[in-house]
Amino acid sequence: MLEGALRLFIAHGYEGTTIEAIAREAGVAIQTVYFKFGNKQTILKELVDVRVAGDDEPIPTLERQWAREAMGAADVSTQLRHQVEGAREIYARVGDLLEVLRNAALSNEEIATLWERNKQQRLEVQQHFIKAFAEKQPLPSGLTPERAADISYGLLGPELYNLLVSERGWTPQEWADWVHSGLCHHLQCDA
């Protein structure tokens, strides 16, 4: 059901996708979709959670292997490379769906709450990464941890990924290399 919902959300957006269409796409009764998820918002939330994680295991982002490798990297450039590669892999799975979520949030208050929660979680992850960075190398003079996290949050955000990869035709690796270079520049580390 989730894979069918994913295809429909990406093709028709949140508002253009109905529970009936999801049931039809999945080859199940409408009641089955309602019984499993209750409503369309829950389907979208479940899809985002599973696609971001890459599985249905309830493991927080910072406890995932790639994030632990980033935080435990011996030097800051390697840490940033792990962060960027982790984001690239996540956006390969969920970039289009996050765009559906962002667009739906503009006109749907319940979805806006999901989008705000997603943004807050991403910012909190970047704050943890910046803390680990600063333990390896001091931040540049005048750059606060809050501002450093904002820079990381912005450069590693799905909005910029979708703009450059989906709209402008960059490859995911070109995006990753550019973001790594930008982070190294702003945080003053050797690329």
UniProtKB/TrEMBL annotation:
Signal sequence annotation: none
Known DNA-binding region: 18-37
Gene3D superfamilies in the cross-refs: Tetracycline Repressor, domain 2
Classification via SUPFAM superfamilies: Homeodomain-like
Keyword field: DNA-binding
Transmembrane regions listed in the UniProt entry: none
Coiled coil region boundaries: none
Record domain HTH tetR-type: where: 1-55
InterPro entries on file: Homeodomain-like_sf (IPR009057), HTH-type_TetR-like_transc_reg (IPR050109), HTH_TetR (IPR001647)
Name of the protein in its database record: TetR/AcrR family transcriptional regulator
